[in-house]
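Issue 218. Parser rejects a valid record. Input:
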Amino acid sequence: QVQLVESGGGLAQPGGSLRLSCAASGFTFNAYAMSWARQAPGKGLEWVSGITSDESDTYYADSVKSRFTISRDNAKNTLYLQMNNLKPEDTALYYCLRGWGATGNYWGQGTQVTVSS
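Output the parser choked on:
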């Protein structure tokens, strides 16, 4: 079965960095686009970033552009999100999704990112 397991979240100070990872299994990872989405308390789901199966194209929400970098290692079936210059408004539960966008059928359990001094 499809499994997506996120890790790497935690507490960071404003201006700090975190790197999220998503270990994928149960499907042909290199055949699918992958995405990160987040949900802050009391807010809706936001598509943060996406990457095509061959890494030829990426998407970033305006709110994270130039600060976050999505990447993938198809040999390791792993998706990454490097988050730099973190802001308090980046505080959210971050999800890994199979597919392009925030409407995929397969999600991980999420990893919490908290940005606070």
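Fixed in the parser; the record now loads. The CA atoms of residues 71 and 80 lie 5 Å apart.
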